[in-house]
Specification:
The complex is a heterodimer of chains A (215) and B (224). Chain A has 215 residues and is α/β, with parallel strands linked by helices. Chain A contains nine helices and five strands. Chain A folds into two domains: 5-80, Methionine synthase domain (Methyltransferase, Methionine Synthase (B12-binding Domains), Chain A, domain 1, Orthogonal Bundle); 90-214, Cobalamin-binding domain (Rossmann fold, 3-Layer(aba) Sandwich). In chain A, α8 links the parallel β4 and β5 (194-195). Chain A is globular, with a radius of gyration of 17 Å. Chain B has helices spanning 15-19, 41-55, 91-96, 99-108, 117-121, 126-138, 140-150, 167-180, 193-200, 220-223; strands spanning 4-11, 28-33, 59-65, 83-86, 112-115, 156-161, 184-189, 208-211. In chain B, 40% of the residues are buried. Classes of the chains: A alpha/beta (215), B alpha/beta (224). At the A-B interface, α4 and α8 of A face α4, α6, α7 and α10 of B. The complex binds cobalamin. Cobalamin sits between chains A (50, 53, 60, 63, 94, 99-106, 108-109, 145-147, 149-152, 176-181, 196, 198-199, 202) and B (38-39, 69-70, 89-90, 92, 110, 112-114, 150-151, 153-154).
Chain lengths: 215, 224
């Protein structure tokens, strides 16, 4: 049996859920490394989808199919990404802030970080501020990610930053924010460390940030 | 031709609610933009700026029938008469009549998918989207499933009754959406108070952002 990562990328972009699951399974059966399937098959596809959505070339139903295909494929890969791979780069806790139920973008960000070797703890949607703080205390993540898709719920992100300060753990955690209405400027204003305009730049800026911190 | 006193540039989605106030009889020029531009805020901004610059030559006061709309109004440059923009996040506050009401509804039930007559007229309710958009794009089988997945996080579907059009029909349609997707139905009475303010003023600072001539609109004006 053989596998074709380009085919995986293409099938993901086409949003063919069942076909992608098959191809992922076939690749595994052909001894492809799970990390390779993720990084060279799925992630480039998701990048492409994100790009097309932003430019208005792709519409919501297609994006949803792709997101679903991606998450089904991840379900197959995740248990096979050895502990060493998932978590080697660090831990990310991510969730959507209180009052906000949008999760498509947040979940994509989570999957991209898994692809980058992070252990990802996805705490879900509509999470009260204290849940972010508690998750930060419990899991001691390297990065705490918050997603807000509504301008009405964006302010929760700044509140969480303040609660982290009050809890005395602000400087132990890198706070990253994102979501369609969130801007770099806004991220700075509320005292977040990082802003990611989309899932793959989120990974890039995080990498850069930690690389700089080491030097 | 004499200059008209006021020009309102509004989202086409709210045409019924504006027209009910007979703006033309009050000497107000209405410009409706295609709805759904909020989906692509960068395009919305560009189109709005073009329209603003064009109408600015023939009017004294320009008011937008838009809110922050996912930052679509951020970065707009006010013409020499300045620019007045409702201080709301999106149209739902306008349909409900005030920011407070929106905020209260929102904190009680964040998991509510609000429908207005306009969304339903344009087949943008979940059932309409499945039938007229998702089926064409995804095929009948996946269309339904995709919508179920899209709105899986929501517990309620509401009908914001603005009292325009055949309300009975819209209520039934919203109910049908709720029934088919297993959500609780809720009816919210609309209030045209905000629409009246946009049309007739006063454009008080609490409810409206006033962008000074030649200045650029910023997100923070809407959040304070
Ligand atoms: C799909 C969608 C929905 C779906 C949500 C499905 C789901 N399961 O998530 C449904 C239809 C259910 C929905 C409901 C509502 N929505 Co909505 N929705 C959208 C829409 C069209 C797309 C969002 C999306 O999924 N995009 C695709 C993903 C891939 O992109 P993304 O989310 O932006 O994520 C990327 C980046 O932002 C970034 N990112 C995201 N999170 C994070 C986090 C971190 C840490 C980082 C680094 C990066 C990052 O990376 C992601 C991947 O590249 C947007 C419009 C838009 N332009 O964004 C409106 C939008 C966000 N919704 C809006 C509104 C108003 C609502 C409703 C109130 C509408 C209603 N009629 O009731 C409800 C809100 C309910 C609630 N309490 O949350 C408004 C918000 C306006 C505002 N006030 O700010 C928008 C802007 C549309 C509009 N009308 O103007 N919505």
């Amino acid at each position: 049996m053989s596998y074709d990562l380009g085919k995986i990328t293409e099938t993901l972009i086409q949003g063919k859920v069942d076909r992608l699951t098959e191809l992922t399974q076939e690749a595994i059966d052909s001894n492809a490394e799970p990390a390779k399937i993720l990084n060279e098959g799925l992630l480039p596809g998701m990048d492409n989808v994100g790009e097309k959505w932003k430019n208005g070339e792709m519409f919501m139903p297609e994006v949803l199919r792709c997101a679903k295909a991606m998450s089904k494929s991840m379900d197959i890969l995740r248990p096979r990404l050895t502990e060493g791979e998932l978590g080697s780069a660090g831990t990310l806790v991510i969730g959507t802030v209180a009052g906000d139920l949008h999760d498509i973008g947040k979940d994509l960000v989570g999957m991209m970080f898994e692809g980058a070797g992070y252990k990802v703890i996805n705490i879900g949607i509509d999470q009260p501020n204290e849940n972010f703080v508690n998750a930060a205390i419990e899991h001691k993540p390297d990065v705490l990610g918050m997603s807000a898709l509504l301008t009405t719920t964006m302010p929760r992100m700044g509140e969480v930053v303040n609660s982290l300060k009050e809890a005395g753990i602000r400087d132990q955690i890198t706070v990253m924010v994102g979501g369609a209405p969130v801007t770099e400027e806004y991220a700075q204003e509320i005292g977040a460390d990082l802003y990611g305009a989309n899932a793959s730049t989120a990974v890039d800026v995080t990498r850069e940030y930690f690389a700089k911190a080491k030097n | 031709m004499s200059k008209s006193q006021k020009t309102i540039i509004a989202c086409g989605g709210m045409k019924a609610e504006f027209e009910r106030l007979n703006p033309a009889d009050n000497g107000i020029e209405m410009h409706y933009m295609p709805q759904n531009l909020h989906r692509v805020p960068d395009t919305l901004r560009k189109k709005l700026q073009e329209t603003i610059d064009r109408v600015a030559e023939d009017t004294e006061t320009i008011i937008l029938g838009y809110g922050l709309c996912c930052n679509g109004v951020v970065g707009l440059k006010a013409p020499e008469q300045g620019l007045i923009v409702p201080k709301v996040h999106d149209c739902i506050a306008l349909y409900m009549g005030s920011t407070e009401k929106y905020r209260n509804m929102f904190s009680q039930n964040p998991g509510t998918y609000h429908l207005t007559r306009n969304w339903m007229d344009n087949k943008k309710d979940p059932l309409g989207l499945v039938e007229h958009e998702y089926k064409r794009r995804l095929g009948a089988e996946d269309a339904r499933e995709t919508m179920e997945w899209e709105i899986k996080n929501y517990s309620h579907i509401s009908y914001i009754n603005t009292g325009t059009g055949r309300t009975e029909q819209y209520r039934n349609r919203a109910l049908e959406n709720a029934r088919q997707f297993n959500k609780q139905f809720m009816e919210i009475s609309g209030d045209d108070a905000f629409f009246r303010k946009i049309v007739h003023g006063p454009w008080d600072k609490k409810n409206f952002v006033h962008i000074k001539p030649h200045e650029i609109s910023k997100q923070e004006y809407f959040l304070k």
